Amino acid sequence: MSDASTHSIVAPHGLGIAPHAPAAFDSPDAQDAQDAHDVRNRGVPFDAAWIDGLRVNHAAVERRTATLAARRSVKKDAQAAWLLKAVTCIDLTTLNGDDTEGRVRRLCAKARRPVRADLVEALGLAPDAIATGAVCVYHRFVAAAADALAGAGIPVAAVSTGFPAGLNPHRLKLEEIAASVADGAAEIDIVVTREHILTGNWRALYDEVRDFRAACGAAHLKAILATGDIRTLANVAKASMVCMMAGADFIKTSTGKEGVNATLDVSLVMVRMIREFRERTGARVGFKPAGGVSSAKSVLAYQVLMKEELGRDWLEPSLFRIGASSLLADIERQLEHHVTGRYSAFNRHPVA
Fold first, then answer.
1. Of 183, 211, 288, 330, catalytic
2. Which residues pair with 92 in a beta bridge?
């Protein structure tokens, strides 16, 4: 796609993307190493000029997302390969009021071997070749999940900072992050204060996320924008940029609890901001759609979006995650159809 069409969707003041700026918290050596996946986004000082004048062309967004499925048809062996890759990017999630330690441990067992053994064998893979990207739980179950996943190389992600509303006192939010990290969480999915976005208080949003990033320590921070609550695509663009400026390792669409969660439209705006942030700083930031990505067909559209907008590296779990639970069952059904030519009932593909 041409630069002109790129800027017709999301553009800062004037035409095109502003000149590159260095990532102030990176040494030159670290900046040169940003292409390595294990180098984190260290953030940059707050600069309102990065967000002033950001506008989003809704019609152009809709035209772009409408072409994703139509222009890219993934079938047969290629589809099976893409779906297996999608499994490795799933943050297998349980965030229900009736969660128990037993349920969480079953979910962790599924995360270790998410695809039925007979399907894995039929696809010519080793029994332990596929695992999910992470297991995502409330703080209460972090220690149990970390124990259940010991030695598997699968990180525990904890939702935090008063998830899903994010209205706890700031001090308690920081304490919750620290407690989850102490219990074994390697990733923290934080919710931002929506009021900061809705009132345009971008410095307050930056300071909040910067504090969360510091509290995470070595754990990676995923910033949830709650896109269904913040009303406009322009707000989505600005909030995405501010969270990345503050040091977010991932930006995430939703809690899964809003009335509207992940959509291709908000995702396109967010990944365009990831692309612009990389052009400005060299830093790679990951993306996580969450809520509503429940079918194999829908996840393929998100994978095509990542591939076309950001490149092959954003199909890997280091830079792409999907917050989901029921998605896994539909992927298994599609893989069974690929192997046997028949679809099976959902109850043959339990998530946990």
1. 288
2. 135, 324
Which residues span the domain enclosing 168? 3-11+54-340
- Three-class SS state of 217: coil
Would 229 be classed as within a structural domain? yes
Domain count, the chain: 1
Matching residue, tokens 């917050």:
323
- The pLDDT value given to residue 36: 42
Residue 77 among the catalytic residues: no
Q: How many residues does the chain have?
A: 352
List 110, 211, 252, 330, catalytic entry: 252
How far is 222 from 249, CA to CA, in rounded Å?
A: 6
* H-type alpha helices, 72-149: 76-88, 101-112, 117-122, 142-148
- Is residue 233 domain-resident? yes
Beta bridge partners of 189: 159, 222
| Whole-angstrom distance, CA of residue 68 vs CA of residue 65 | 5
The CATH number assigned to the domain holding 68 equals: 3.20.20.70
Q: Which pTM value belongs to this model?
A: 0.89
Candidates 94, 180, 190, 92; CA nearest to 139 is 180
Check: CB of residue 108 under 8 Å from CB of residue 148: yes
State the 10-residue block means of pLDDT for the chain, 352 residues long: 43 31 33 51 97 94 88 84 97 97 97 95 94 98 98 98 98 98 98 98 98 98 98 97 98 96 97 98 98 94 96 97 93 95 77 53
Angstrom distances, CA of residue 145 to CA of 76, 129, 222, 254, 352: 35, 21, 19, 22, 13
Written as one letter, the residue type at 110 is: K
What 8-state DSSP symbol labels residue 137? E
Which stretches of 230-300 are assigned E, i.e. beta strand?
A: 250-252, 286-288
> Does 181 fall in a domain?
yes
Q: In the annotation, is 297 catalytic?
A: no
Residue 40 lies in a domain: no
* pLDDT value of position 72: 63
**Catalytic residue at 85?**
no
**Active-site residue identified among 189, 229, 265, 330:** 189
| Distance from C-alpha of 292 to C-alpha of 289, rounded to nearest angstrom | 9
